[in-house]
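Following the same procedure, sequence and fold were stored together, as reproduced here.

>
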Amino acid sequence: MDAKNRFETKVTFALSRLEWLGFLTVSLVLAFQHRTEIRWAVFILLFVMIDVIGYLPGAIAFRRSPDRRVPRGCYVAYNLMHSLVTAGVLAGAWALFVRPEWALLALPIHLMGDRALFGNSLKPFGVAFEPETTPAFLMFEQRYRSSVDSGEFGTARTSMNDTEDTDAVRA
């Protein structure tokens, strides 16, 4: 995956999940080491808040929708609450205005758990709110695998911009 090819193969996705698992493990070890110092009510509140605000409204809307579409606001809420940036801002504000504390580990534990254990990350608008493979991605993945297996990867044109760039070089 790179800035021009924004997708992950099964192997690169597994490697990303392995990295997230490392961060989850560090967070869990710290929580275990400081378990007597954690205000557990705060920990549980922070842990649950992410899904109460960011996931449950979209999940309910998805299940109630006859066409499985949810309002864009559900995606925005999910992405906002499941963002490491949001977690960092929240933890920083909490440390500044309340106090620094080990209960804040609930944030990376939740987010890294979602990513490492469930493979969930941020949600783009163009896919179903709940995980399901789109036919377009399935077709792309099959074509990609075929080009890799045949040794043609790196030579296939993937967009009109590639065609235009090639035509401009020939001119």
Notes: Helices lie at 10-33, 40-54, 56-64, 72-81, 84-97, 106-118, 135-149, 160-170.
